[in-house]
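W.,

You were right to be curious about this one. When I first looked at the sequence I had no strong expectations either way, so I just let the prediction run and decided to look at it fresh. Below is the sequence, 129 residues in total, followed by the output.
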Amino acid sequence: MTTLYDYIGDKDKKVEEERIKEEESHNDFLTKIRKQKRLNVNFTGFDGRLSDLINGIRTIANYNNLKGYVRENVLPDNPEISYEKLSIKTGIQEGVALVILYDLYNDKLEEELKDLNDEDVDDLDFNYD
């Protein structure tokens, strides 16, 4: 005969299994994003040094200021702006504009994932009584 304790135990098991499945899915998605951030481009004369080029652009003295300006002043009005239009609008080089949009896109994805993860944790009700 099934008792209330058996029913509660089954529910707890299902909730835990769902939580583990969602956590694995979340980790898989984060892994995919991290892999996308390190794309290796390799063509004659370049030798896959795209990450060196991007890191070089990120070391520009006012890079973070430019990135903040684009995030706060340009993207709210033009969320789908291309790097060419961003370059013209802000007066920066196209490569710098491309890296800024790339970083802002990845920052947004990571923030959304973090928010989803925080919501999942908030939804779980751990009662240790």
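Here's what jumped out at me. The chain has a mean pLDDT of 78. And, maybe more interesting for your project: DSSP finds five helices and no strands in the chain.

Coffee later to discuss?

I.
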